[in-house]
Every structure is written in C-alpha cells, then in structure tokens.
Amino acid sequence: MAKGKKSFLLLNYFKPSIYLESYKKVNLESLKNSGIKLVMCDMDNTLIGWNERIPTTDVINFVKAVYAHNMEFVLFSNNIRSRVENFAKKAGIKNYFWDCKKPLLGKMKLVKKLMPYKENEVVLIGDQLITDVLVANRCHIKSILVSPVGRNNGESKFMQFLENFIFKRLAQKNILHEGFYNEGELGGNYEIL
Ligand SMILES: [Mg+2]
Predict the structure, then answer these.
(1) How many CB atoms are closer than 10 A to CB 7?
(2) Which positions carry the signal peptide feature in this UniProt record (predicted)?
(3) What domain range includes position 33?
(4) Is the residue at 177 inside a domain?
C-alpha cells in the first residue's frame, strides 16, 4: 500500500500543467494574464521535426507573438550547439541554450541566473514527459505538454519505451490520457495553470 502511494506521487512529476495538441494552440494572452513572463520551449518535435532544419512560418510567427506579448522566449534544447543555434537564428530567437541535458537541472539553473524570473512566471513547452515535463516539475515551473510533431521522433528505442510506459501509467491513474487535450480549437482559459 505504501509502495503504491509512493509510485503515485512519483507519477505526478510527469504531469504537465496543460496538455495541448501543438504549440500553435498555446494561448499567449492567457499565459500573460496568468503572470507568465518567460516562455521556454523545447525544439525537436515541439517546434520542428527531428529531421527538419528550417523553422516554418508558424514557428517564426509564434516566436514573434511571444515577444509581441512582452514575454521573453528561450529555446531550451538537448540537441547540439550547431543545430540549435542555426534554428534559433533563422527563427529570430534571441536566447537559446543547447545541450541542456533535460531532465537534469544544470542548464535550468543557468537560465534562472541569467534571467531571474520567479518560478510562477516561467512556463516550459515540450513534447516529452521524461525530459521536458520532468525538468519543469523538478524546478517547480509550469509546463505545457504538446504532441510530438513527427511520428518517428528520432529518439532511441529505450527512450520511446520509457515515454510510452509513463504515458500508460498516467492513464491508469487517470492523471493524463494521450490525445485528450485540455483545449479545443480556440484555446480555453487555462484554469489549471
Ligand atoms: Mg522534444
């Protein structure tokens, strides 16, 4: 019994604040009204497929929209410098971090030092429970889980297995169901944020 309870608590580390189909569904107005000042975002399979290099018009417009809402944008990727830097420059992203080793906290602490926002003023958007959502919960910031851009996401078999395993456990505990998003087409008011 005690063991069951403990694993239930651990599962909460993989629970996003919001679950959306895509970054395109993010309601920036709502985030701003919730006090968010810094939007951090994963790159691969969140903004772009792992085998693509060039940001789409939608990505460029999204980044512009974040800045237009007077929020900061940080690209926060586990990928290598050349790929992250190239993408960031083409997308008009001013602040970007590569080799972040999510879910480890090292780079997150660096961001916090460089951009000293409060925990409740930061949100991280990403497609993976075991990297993005976990790192967000470990440092007590909000998270938005989105469905991966591509079907084949370029992750190792083991990482895919782990991700699927956690999704199944979250569904069993009625915490999160894959494909059951918090919002409809127009975006809601993020009551759970
Ligand atoms: Mg990703």
Answers:
(1) 10
(2) none
(3) 14-172
(4) no
